[in-house]
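lol forgot to send this yesterday, sorry. struct tokens for the thing we talked abt
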């Protein structure tokens, strides 16, 4: 029987997930899972998280749990999707070493994702990058190929990493024989979500994010502080929704009619920003309600989450062992077999 195509994707556990992740990847993940056409795997990339948080293991440990809760609360169903912890798969480390022969240092230094991240991480690395961080694209290639992942749903920023994986696969196959599967990146239909402050990116370190786990009060408070048209000082000043973050978020969370009314009244100076923000906060609260409720359920049943992780990890270990066997055979490392 032909097996279903494998999907492999993952998150670094460095913080709770926010609505940028929700639109950028979680929604697509859940849709792909529910289509029933694939066999999806989600890895919690704790080893990768340590590459730039090696001095903060407690943060990584705590966030493994948070990221699992975020995935489950958005509709990831452990009956359909295998969720596992990267560090529990020793084959990842093993395969990373094998792959490291197939990648040059300068190729890694030229990887655009690594370059961008490094520029943002001067406080961790200073001018000198670690061997581990420079090499994380190699270990990501191991993540993907151990599961023979055909499809990798990711955000745009991850494309250079998938390209790097494809290069490693081609090189490996050309030397050792046709063993590895070349993955394909699938981009989410939704673009990156801007921050409440108008920043192009929503991020934890930027303080401009709405988290999936935020309470109703937190959501309202954050929306009330969102950046609006700076030219609009009094309620009856004519507004410009094109430069207003509240209007931008209405586009993500409100109905078509609401958006039309909001924008029309804003332009005519007939609607105050406070009312507009309240309406938006309510819509966000409603959209995220099922997610919050599911999260609450899992928070109250930690033993269920443990079980999901233990079973997912077991299944992932088994797949990794199988692939590793093939890899070692191809590399003539199959001693005593
Ligand atoms: N690099 C991804 C991130 O920063 C996490 C990740 C690790 C990943 N391994 C992966 C994503 C494999 C897709 C496939 O979020």
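and heres what i got for the seq, position by position
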């Amino acid at each position: 029987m032909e097996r279903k195509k494998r999907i492999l994707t993952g998150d670094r556990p460095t913080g709770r997930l926010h609505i940028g992740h929700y639109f950028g990847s979680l929604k697509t993940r859940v849709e792909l899972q529910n289509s029933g056409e694939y066999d999806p795997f989600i890895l919690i990339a704790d080893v990768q998280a340590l590459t730039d948080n090696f001095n903060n293991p407690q943060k990584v440990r705590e966030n493994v749990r948070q990221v699992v809760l975020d995935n489950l609360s958005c509709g990831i169903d452990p009956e359909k999707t295998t969720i596992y912890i990267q560090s529990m798969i020793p084959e990842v480390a093993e395969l990373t070493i094998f792959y490291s022969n197939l990648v040059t240092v300068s190729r890694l230094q030229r990887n655009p994702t690594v370059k961008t991240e490094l520029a943002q991480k001067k406080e961790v690395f200073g001018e000198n990058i670690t061997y581990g961080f420079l090499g994380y694209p190699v270990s990501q290639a191991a993540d993907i190929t151990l599961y023979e992942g055909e499809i990798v749903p990711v955000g745009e920023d991850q494309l250079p990493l998938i390209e790097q994986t494809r290069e490693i696969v081609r090189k490996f196959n050309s030397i050792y024989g046709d063993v590895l599967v070349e993955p394909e990146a699938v981009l989410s239909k939704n673009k990156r979500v801007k921050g409440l402050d108008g920043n192009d990116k929503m991020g934890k370190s930027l303080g401009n994010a709405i988290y999936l786990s935020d309470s109703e009060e937190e959501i309202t408070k954050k929306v009330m502080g969102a950046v609006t048209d700076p030219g609009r000082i009094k309620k009856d000043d004519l507004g410009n929704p094109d430069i207003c973050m509240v209007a931008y978020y209405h586009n993500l969370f409100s109905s078509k009619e609401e958006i039309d009314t909001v924008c029309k009244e804003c332009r005519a100076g007939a609607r105050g920003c406070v009312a507009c923000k309240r309406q938006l906060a309510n819509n966000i609260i409603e959209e995220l309600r099922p997610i919050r409720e599911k999260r609450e359920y899992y928070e109250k049943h930690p033993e269920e989450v443990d079980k999901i992780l233990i079973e997912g990890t077991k299944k992932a270990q088994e797949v990794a062992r199988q692939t590793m066997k093939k890899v070692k055979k191809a590399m003539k490392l199959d001693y005593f077999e």
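DSSP finds 15 helices and five strands in the chain. anyway ping me if u want another try
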